[in-house]
Model the fold of this input.
Amino acid sequence: MPDFFRRLIRYLNYPADTHGKVDEVLQRVRQLSDEFYARIGALQTDSYHLRAVADWHTQLLNELNAREKEALKTLSEIQTGLRKVQVEVQQARISLEWIQSGAIISEEGIPIFFWEPQLDLDDSSNFSRLFEAGGALVLLRKGDTSETSLPAKIAPAPAEQLGARALLYLRVGKVLASENISGIIAQCRRPGDLATAIAAADVTGAPLALIFASDEESSAESQFADLFEEALRKARLSFCTSALARSTLQTHYGKKVWLLPPFARAEDANGKGHQEKRLTPSELIQWLWVSLDKGFPTETPFEGCISAPEPRDTPYVEPPAPREIHWEMQSHFQALYRLKLTGYLPEFVIDVGASTGYWSHIASQIFPESRYYLVEPLLEKYKQLEGTVYGLHPEFVLIPAAAGNMATEMVLNVSAELYTSSLIDGESLSADLDWLKLKVPVRTLDEISSTLNILGRGLLKIDVQLAEELVLDGAMDLLQRIDVIFIELSHGRFAPQAKTFFEMTEKLHRLGFEYFDYAGCWRNSQTGRLIQQDAIFARQVVLSFEEHPDLNRE
Done:
């Protein structure tokens, strides 16, 4: 275009004869102008297309970004699923190794049965055959939390293999996650059954009763020793159907194991097919639930169901006291229980210094057929302080008096908490305490026995804070019908007129009683020094080897 205008200017400067070319030049200018506008239009069209391409490119980038995010999410899900598959494959490989090893479990696993109180086990073929073949768990269910009571199965895992415990707990938790379990009875024939029972107890927090139903002494095998020890430690109650297996377990682990008759099918329980009496699952499981809740075997009607004798070298292992008994009184329960094992059954029990009546309450659980007479001068005060026991036992005969060596009225030194009150001068016991002087009636045990017409032979318990000799001196006639004395004695002379443990032992010896058993003690809270001891003294009839030949070991 600049060339055109220069040529036009040059043309105008030419002479007139050259003006004939103006039309040609103007035509040429119009032609060039049209070309110019055409090119401008083309450029506008190209610009529009470029903008369209740019918009499309932006849209394409956004879509690609979205697709990329979706692809990354899908990839993450695939990776997560792959890891799960890898874990499952690893678990399957471990399970296959356990199964192939054959050392602990079978492919079938251990059956788990849910049981409800209203269920009649004897009418169920599943339950009738429950304990015939291998191990099994029976779980007491609280309420109706599941649609079915059909058995489930869990493959146990050996506790000594890496990762086995975690996997077993996952399996048990999966089966029991929706269940509200209040008790577990586990019959164990293999170490794997024990591992499953432990897992079920840990996962649910329910109390566990173990039944060892094998005569094999597998518990002595070192590779399973930790497993057996853990199971016995975590079980609230443990049972054996074999006296030999029981002896082995108690010898190796020092845990109480009770003898239990074997299970039988309902049709065999009345003697069909068996020479000895066998219990139906319903009878035995009902009894086990009650015992498991209490923490101590209740009185059983199944005595004599096990004919095999106990090995004489079986060590005695102290059974835990029932859960309801206060820890300070558990040694009293255990001592009375050991006394009962000798075969001794008192016709009556006289509790001198009965306080709240808790000691007689414990004794009545061991000797429920005995008659109980409770002597306590502060009876009404104890009823006001804690009268629960007296409300539970209306059959107890209550005597609101102190026991002494003569019928009279004496000053009782009453302590603030009542328990250390004594007929002995309070200041000599502890001068730094405030003592209430209270006159109380005093009666002799001979007079009480005569007045109440207490007949038969029985047990005398004395807890009177240093006044034990006064009680004995007022019971010379009654003592002729006393076989056992349960008494609290002091190892120091805490008052001038009080007798020590050794002096009272000599006195009881002269009266015909020998030291029989330890029943607890009271120690200094700082040093542990022995202050008082609860002891049982018994006549020769209770100690007699002739009456109890099992005590006369060679």
